[in-house]
Amino acid sequence: MTEPRNALTPEALTMMDAIAQSGSFAAAARQLGKVPSALTYSVRQLEDALDVLLFDRRSRQATLTAAGQELLDEGRRLLEQIDAVANRVKRVATGWETQFTVAFDDAVSRTTILELCEAFYEPSPPTRLRIRSEVLSGTWEALVTGHADLAIGVGTDRELPSGLAMKDLGRLDFVFAVAPHHALASHADPIGDAELLRHRAVAVADSALRLAPMTVNLLPGQDVFTVGSMQAKIDALLRGLGCGFVPESMVRDHIGAGRLVAKAVERARMAAPLGYAWRLPSNPRGAGARAKAQPGSALRWWLDALERPATRRALLERHGSRIGGVVELGTGR
């Protein structure tokens, strides 16, 4: 007896589809260029291999059983996937990566990242795109451990290992903020560390799992309320659950509306120089010493987009309400 997996060929699934659409074995045979007896024999072979009845023999029409309907539904899905795989293989041969992962820091504009994804998908490339939001060292860890091909929003003050490249993204300015009803809101500026130590800080947990987690601008012995994202930190500040430094561009609207108060502190105002880094392509197997590996088409697309000053500014500035569209990210140098 034929094994079920050997019986479920594209030809057998196409046969089932033709019978269901035409409504009879005879009509399906004509459509497939076969004689009816050959088609009937093929159906019986398929039924024997699966050990089920696919058609109700009591009806004069080609009526599917429940098992036959399930095979038809799943078979159509499999045929679509087979066609899709064939198309993807052809297109990947043109230089597109099968999958491309972008890790971005939580302080980078999520709106801009998604708009870049929209632009990337517009010509329907064969690459499966994945994005992942990380915090602090987590963005860098995703790249160096091979879980990301491109990391946006990594600190530029780190040593660059071999096999990676980096360029500047820009500077992210931070502001110390509290809710209007927080005790520090009415405190005289600038606020010293001794006074800050008396108040709870809100911090975002580093998402790194292997690298040593970073702590930024926390005082030794200070009470800390830890949250999972920068947006959660802002929400906590709005509720007066603590104080802390946040990207100025992310709270600009809140400060303008009076929902948060920016306070001067004695310690230097934070400014984080950020960059974007990517994995360099390795030489193909069997290539000579002079052969130079070329980046895939997906990586080239993202690097070209990040070369535009408008894109880099948007990644650091465009938080909150949507301003313009993705088309504007590609204009201006």
Please tell me about this protein's structure:
- With 333 residues, the protein is of the alpha/beta class.
- The chain folds into three domains: 4-92, Arc Repressor Mutant, subunit A (Orthogonal Bundle); 99-170 and 273-329, 3-Layer(aba) Sandwich (D-Maltodextrin-Binding Protein, domain 2), CATH 3.40.190.10; 173-271, D-Maltodextrin-Binding Protein, domain 2 (3-Layer(aba) Sandwich), CATH 3.40.190.
- The protein is 40% helix and 18% strand.
- The protein is built from 13 helices and nine strands.
- The protein has helices at residues 4-7, 10-22, 25-32, 36-50, 66-92, 110-121, 137-144, 193-196, 230-238, 248-256, 297-306, 309-317, 326-329, and strands at 99-105, 128-134, 150-155, 164-178, 201-204, 224-227, 244-247, 261-263, 271-279.
- Strands 1, 2, 3, 4, 7, 8 and 9 form a seven-stranded mixed sheet that branches. Strands 5-6 form a two-stranded parallel sheet.
- α6 links the parallel β1 and β2.
- α2 (10-22) crosses α3 and α2 crosses α5.
- The longest helix is centred in the first third of the chain and has 27 residues, at 66-92.
- The chain is elongated.
Give structural attributes:
D-Maltodextrin-Binding Protein, domain 2, Arc Repressor Mutant, subunit A, 333 residues, seven-stranded mixed β-sheet, alpha/beta, two-stranded parallel sheet, single chain, disordered C terminus
Brief synopsis:
This protein is an alpha/beta fold and 333 residues long.
